[in-house]
Design brief:
The protein is an all-alpha fold and 108 residues long. It has one domain (10-103): Helix Hairpins (Orthogonal Bundle). The chain contains four helices and no strands. Helix 1 (10-30) runs antiparallel to helix 2. The protein is elongated and about 60 Å long.
Amino acid sequence: MNNPTFYDRPAAYLILAAALLAIGILGFVRRRTLIGMLISGEVIFAAASVNFMALNRFYSPDPVAGQVVVLFIMGLAAAEVAVGLSIIIAVYRNYRSIRSKDVSEMNG
């Protein structure tokens, strides 16, 4: 007999995605450095990707749709990292620090 396991239901993947989202939001709020915030943003993107793949696997008649969306998310994440790191490098060159508090105290 075919006994369904926990991983044959969408709840397992949605719980994982919710945990990743919670970790990402908590990290984004708690981190004091810009690089920590950037990594937390990537964890949030990973949560969105897990959601799309889970919903695609269990509810979508077209198996390619969710995978294409996840590829776009990965491209967006790569672009975010490139732009974010260039901004962090520029901030470090000017202020010799990457703490978010130092950036928020800029006068101008």
